[in-house]
Amino acid sequence: MPRVLRAVGLLGCMLALIAAAVPTLASAAPSTQSSIAWSPDIVASISGTLAPGTEQDWGPYFLTQGQSLTVSLDWTPGSVPMAVDLCDPNNDCTHVPVSGGSSDTQFFADATGNFTVVIENDSVSTTVTYSGAVSY
User: What CATH number should be reported for the domain holding residue 76?
Assistant: First the structure.
């Protein structure tokens, strides 16, 4: 019997030590600030040259309803009016005119499915060269 009591006593001491450590670890409050910046899951580079009045499609990009997609775009010459569209799985498009040679346009998916980004040169006389990224 004494061996059993010693084993139980030793086991009890070990459990007491473990139990004492757990509340200390679990009571650490999470930090309210993070040094890690949010980044999208996927970033796809886009670039091209568009003649006046033309457009280029990019995608498809699979989005879930409510998910955001951002198109970052730089183009030259910057005086040329451009547009960025996001077309949903039913080919209904949200059209956003952009200007000034640089833009960041954020969209939110209205459904789940494959979406297409459309980059448009709205000029009637000037060719434009663009580059950027689609992130989602």
Answer: 2.60.120.380
